[in-house]
Amino acid sequence: MTTFLPYFVVIMLLVVGLGFFNEKVTKLTDEIALMLFAIILGAVLLLVSTIIRNEDVQLVLHDIQLFDLEDYLMDCVLCFMLFAGSCHMKLKDFGRLARQVSVLSFLCTLLGAVIYGFAFYGFAMLLSLPFTLPMCLMFGSIVAPTDPIAATSILKKFGLPKDIGFLIEGESLLNDGVGVALFVCFSGIVKATESGNVLEVLLREVLGAAGIGLVVSMICIFVFARTADYNRQIFASLLAVATAYLLCQKLDCSGAIASVICGVAFSTIRKYEKNQGEIEQMAHFDTFWSILDNLLNSVLYVMLGLSFVRILQMPAVMMLSVVAVICNLIGRAGSVALSTTVLGQIPDGYDWKSFTKLLTWAGLRGGLSIALAMSTRTMLDTDIYHVILGCTYAIVFFTTVVQGLTMSKVYSRISAKVGK
After folding, report:
1. Roughly how many angstroms between the first and final C-alpha of the chain, as a whole number?
2. Cβ–Cβ contacts within 10 Å for residue 25, how many?
3. Structure letter (DSSP) for residue 157
4. Mean pLDDT over residues 366-384, rounded?
5. How far apart are CA 366 and CA 364, in angstroms?
6. Which of 110, 153, 205, 321 could bridge across to 254 with cysteines, CB 3.0–4.6 Å?
């Protein structure tokens, strides 16, 4: 309790200060700016501590590196972020594009993990790294899921076509559970323990989580739809997502999937309330979740940026980061290209080649990948763990900053070629 308030003050100072500077000067997308400037700040602190050997600065760096980002994400805020991103989902669009979203969420994630795993294994053999194939497949499952927070907060600002934007958002919201299920399977092989087959784990992770999310949501929606108190409605939504996520943790189901199911369930109430003429109630609901999502999202990107100083201290980080990014692009492009062959009709008139290029560059990674990488700490040797964590950070940085900053230009070029 004694360390919470100082941490909160420092993080909020960075969120407000860096955000204000970006608004007035650099004018980048907020999430990209927060992460980029936090990385620069962390690097400056590391440089200062190396030069002047100041104990206070070294203590700050030490505290930052001890910050448990895994606990912050997996046990504190991830469920609320996923709920906030999915509670505004338009079910009409999902019903119309259910096949495409399902293929991208399940098949594309599986193929991405496998292709990445084999690609990284090939590089590992060339570089004589002590990686086995199961380790590389586990690594592939860590970086395969695209990030819903990045998708909803960054990509939507570039004016993507309605259906393409919905596919990217829908894929990123649903593939977290698939990625976690694959991670459970491959990490079980790495630990040489009984983890069940892929189908069994997928059924438990996905269907079990969906059932929990649906049941808990229906109970809380009963209160939500029958109370006239705006605050109590918001409390009911908070209770629903937190309870579903907690139950999934206890029952070894995907809390990410359950959180999305809760958000989608509450999105149906939004339509019902508006049909009843009670638009003001849902305005309070939307405002609350929008503000909370923005706050948690900003804190996440600042912490990701500050934590990047770890990468600067790892051996051979530049070479391995380049390898990781190359494998990520190979895995994403290959998985999208193969999935597109069974996708059915491609929305908005895009051809196979253009669609593959667009979704490859739109495949941003985020906090879930970092959390999964951190969770391998107890099962791997220190050197291997540092490689996986460092490479995961590199992929998150590259996809968020580099791909995020250039997404608008890539989209414009692709659209020009297909006559959009």
Report:
1. 55
2. 9
3. G
4. 82
5. 7
6. 205
